[in-house]
Amino acid sequence: MGALKPWHIAVLVVVLILLFGAKRLPDAARSLGRSLRIIKAETKSLADDDRDLAGKADAQAGYQPYPPQQPAPPPQQPYQGTVQQPVVDPVQRVREN
Q1: Under a CB-based contact definition with an 8 Å cutoff, are residues 25 and 17 in contact?
Q2: Which of 5, 23, 78, 83 has its CA 20 to 30 A from that of 33?
Q3: Within a 13 Å sphere around the CA of 41, how many CA atoms are in the beta-carbon half?
Q4: Contact, 78 vs 84, CB < 8 A?
């Protein structure tokens, strides 16, 4: 029922010639071929890009993490001869006023 028979193709060709004319059909076929060639090249480049990204991700997987950092030295005690003022956050000081 859904099979395409040779007479179907013949009818389709006759209708196309009547619609577009014999002079325009080669140009239309040529532009269709160019379009298909461009689409094929673009899909191939997308597939290549995907492979390149996968290769880069595999290469980055081999990196080792940084070694643990040494603990920071203890803070020095302030000079005992002066009185230290408490540290006030400038934002809170503005909000309080």
Answers
A1: yes
A2: 5
A3: 6
A4: yes
